[in-house]
Amino acid sequence: MLDHIAIQVQDIAASAAFYDAVLAPLGGERKKQYGANISYGIEGHPLWLVPTSDPAPARELHLAFAAADRAGVDAFHEAALATGAEILHAPRLWPEYHESYYGVFVRDPDGNNVEAVCHRPE
To answer: In this model, does residue 1 exceed pLDDT 80?
Structure first.
Protein backbone atom coordinates (compact mmCIF):
# COMPACT_ATOMS: atom_id res chain seq x y z
CA MET A 1 0.00 0.00 0.00
CA LEU A 2 2.75 2.51 0.87
CA ASP A 3 4.79 3.62 -2.14
CA HIS A 4 7.07 6.15 -0.47
CA ILE A 5 7.41 8.55 2.43
CA ALA A 6 9.34 11.83 2.72
CA ILE A 7 10.60 13.13 6.03
CA GLN A 8 11.77 16.66 6.64
CA VAL A 9 15.26 17.02 8.09
CA GLN A 10 17.10 20.01 9.55
CA ASP A 11 20.58 19.02 8.29
CA ILE A 12 20.49 16.97 5.08
CA ALA A 13 24.19 16.01 5.32
CA ALA A 14 23.91 14.75 8.91
CA SER A 15 20.72 12.84 8.18
CA ALA A 16 22.15 11.34 4.99
CA ALA A 17 25.26 10.16 6.88
CA PHE A 18 23.02 8.52 9.52
CA TYR A 19 20.76 6.76 6.99
CA ASP A 20 23.75 5.74 4.81
CA ALA A 21 25.19 3.96 7.86
CA VAL A 22 22.11 2.34 9.39
CA LEU A 23 20.38 1.23 6.19
CA ALA A 24 23.46 -0.43 4.66
CA PRO A 25 23.26 -3.52 6.94
CA LEU A 26 19.62 -3.94 5.82
CA GLY A 27 20.50 -3.75 2.11
CA GLY A 28 19.29 -0.15 1.76
CA GLU A 29 21.28 2.48 -0.06
CA ARG A 30 21.04 5.93 -1.57
CA LYS A 31 19.14 5.58 -4.80
CA LYS A 32 18.75 9.10 -6.12
CA GLN A 33 19.45 12.75 -5.41
CA TYR A 34 16.92 15.23 -6.77
CA GLY A 35 18.04 18.73 -5.91
CA ALA A 36 18.72 18.61 -2.18
CA ASN A 37 16.35 15.63 -1.71
CA ILE A 38 17.86 12.17 -1.24
CA SER A 39 16.08 8.82 -1.67
CA TYR A 40 16.86 5.44 -0.13
CA GLY A 41 15.70 1.95 -0.86
CA ILE A 42 16.54 -1.58 -1.88
CA GLU A 43 14.30 -1.20 -4.90
CA GLY A 44 12.55 2.00 -5.86
CA HIS A 45 12.60 5.09 -3.66
CA PRO A 46 10.49 4.35 -0.56
CA LEU A 47 12.26 6.84 1.76
CA TRP A 48 13.06 10.45 0.91
CA LEU A 49 14.97 12.96 3.03
CA VAL A 50 13.80 16.50 2.32
CA PRO A 51 15.42 19.58 3.88
CA THR A 52 13.01 21.71 5.87
CA SER A 53 12.92 25.47 5.66
CA ASP A 54 11.22 25.72 9.06
CA PRO A 55 13.70 26.25 11.91
CA ALA A 56 11.30 24.75 14.45
CA PRO A 57 11.94 21.12 15.41
CA ALA A 58 9.89 18.62 13.43
CA ARG A 59 7.29 16.52 15.16
CA GLU A 60 8.65 13.08 16.07
CA LEU A 61 7.87 10.27 13.70
CA HIS A 62 8.43 6.52 13.95
CA LEU A 63 10.02 4.61 11.07
CA ALA A 64 10.51 0.85 11.16
CA PHE A 65 12.79 -0.91 8.68
CA ALA A 66 12.56 -4.65 8.01
CA ALA A 67 15.64 -6.77 8.61
CA ALA A 68 15.98 -10.18 6.97
CA ASP A 69 17.28 -11.69 10.20
CA ARG A 70 18.31 -10.83 13.74
CA ALA A 71 21.91 -10.32 12.65
CA GLY A 72 20.64 -7.47 10.46
CA VAL A 73 18.98 -5.86 13.49
CA ASP A 74 22.23 -6.19 15.43
CA ALA A 75 24.25 -4.71 12.52
CA PHE A 76 21.80 -1.77 12.31
CA HIS A 77 22.36 -1.23 16.04
CA GLU A 78 26.15 -1.26 15.63
CA ALA A 79 25.94 1.17 12.70
CA ALA A 80 23.72 3.51 14.75
CA LEU A 81 26.19 3.38 17.65
CA ALA A 82 29.02 4.26 15.25
CA THR A 83 27.15 7.40 14.15
CA GLY A 84 26.72 8.48 17.78
CA ALA A 85 22.94 7.98 17.67
CA GLU A 86 20.99 7.78 20.90
CA ILE A 87 19.92 4.20 21.52
CA LEU A 88 16.35 4.15 22.82
CA HIS A 89 16.15 0.36 23.22
CA ALA A 90 18.98 -2.07 22.49
CA PRO A 91 18.20 -5.11 20.34
CA ARG A 92 15.99 -7.63 22.10
CA LEU A 93 12.85 -9.70 21.78
CA TRP A 94 9.60 -7.81 22.29
CA PRO A 95 7.15 -10.63 23.20
CA GLU A 96 4.44 -8.08 23.98
CA TYR A 97 4.28 -7.48 20.19
CA HIS A 98 4.65 -11.16 19.25
CA GLU A 99 6.95 -14.02 20.25
CA SER A 100 9.46 -13.51 17.39
CA TYR A 101 9.54 -9.69 17.31
CA TYR A 102 13.23 -8.75 17.56
CA GLY A 103 13.96 -5.05 17.31
CA VAL A 104 16.16 -2.09 18.14
CA PHE A 105 15.06 1.56 18.46
CA VAL A 106 17.35 4.58 17.94
CA ARG A 107 17.05 8.35 17.38
CA ASP A 108 18.03 9.86 14.05
CA PRO A 109 19.63 13.35 13.88
CA ASP A 110 16.16 14.96 13.88
CA GLY A 111 14.90 13.06 16.92
CA ASN A 112 12.81 10.52 15.05
CA ASN A 113 12.35 7.05 16.53
CA VAL A 114 13.95 4.72 13.98
CA GLU A 115 13.63 0.96 14.35
CA ALA A 116 15.04 -2.13 12.70
CA VAL A 117 12.89 -5.22 13.20
CA CYS A 118 12.94 -8.90 12.30
CA HIS A 119 9.73 -10.92 12.65
CA ARG A 120 11.32 -14.33 12.03
CA PRO A 121 12.14 -16.78 14.77
CA GLU A 122 15.83 -17.44 15.44
So the answer is: no
